[in-house]
Amino acid sequence: MSREFNASLASYNKLLRTMEKLPEKNPVKNIGLLSPSRTKNATDKEDMSQPINRIIKHFNTIKNKRGELNGS
Amino acid sequence: MALEDVTSMFDAPIPGESLTFELGSRPWQQAPQMSTVDEVIEYYMERMSTDDFMNQLMDVLELEVPITSIVNTMQLNSVMEGVHSVDVGVLISPLLVEMIMYMADMAKVDYVSGLEKPDTSDKLSPTKVAKMMNKFKQEVEDIDIEEEPSVETQETEEPKGLMARRT
Q1: Which of the residues A24, B2, B13, B144 has an alpha carbon 20 to 30 A from that of A32?
Q2: Which run of H or of E encompasses A56?
């Protein structure tokens, strides 16, 4: 049982690897009143059109909730 | 060859049996009912939020069935029923694994995630220990316990003869 290929396990590990490769969001450098509060990311909308990115978003939400529950 | 082996051999599907059905007569040969990831997530979340599912899931988790195996079975079953396609199933698998782990944490049930590396040490699994304990108990019950002869205290007779030494 344990030696057979498990698609869910492979998929989970693959998702974690994908998340590690994702570029981190750059912090906003400007602090002035008129400076944009958030850097414009032109690829934001494109990202959400990809199913994997939507999955990552849901996945992160649940993972954070689980982390809160376990106190980590 | 034992008789059991022969019967199991004939239990297998005949090669090409899958081609004897009309194309499209099986659910997985039709277009899936749900095609987007969001629809499928909603479908699973609805199913998983029922009390029946929750109770059954916790029972299975307590039996130390790995979560990845449960998720794999769930999504393959849905593919078989024609709910979604294989690729969508594989995509949402990690989400289901995480969701089940969250539910188990909430219910404070110990679980085997199936994400750990296989333990190659000589550590015995709880199942093996339980089996061995049962075997040991059976062996102990089978042994006829012979009654130990009670140690009789020998009464020392007091010498009564004329030449007997007085204590």
Answers
A1: A24
A2: helix A51-70
Contact flag A52-B95 (C-beta cutoff 8 Å): no
Question: Hey, is the C-beta of B36 within 8 angstroms of any chain A C-beta?
Answer: yes
**Verdict on whether the full-model pTM lies above 0.90:** no
H or E, element range at A17: helix A7-21
Chain B closest CA to A55's CA: distance in Å? Answer: 7
**Token pair in block for residue B45:** 């979340």
Closest CA to B45 of A44, A46, A61: A61
Instruction: Please report, for residues B4, B7, B14, B29, the alpha-carbon distance to residue B1 in angstroms, rounded to integers and kept in the order given.
Output: 8, 11, 21, 38
CB contact under 8 A, B92 and A55: yes
Model pLDDT for residues A1-21, shown as the tens digit of each residue: 455 788 888 999 999 998 888
Which ranges of chain B would DSSP assign to H, the alpha helix?
Answer: 3-11, 37-48, 51-62, 67-80, 86-106, 126-142
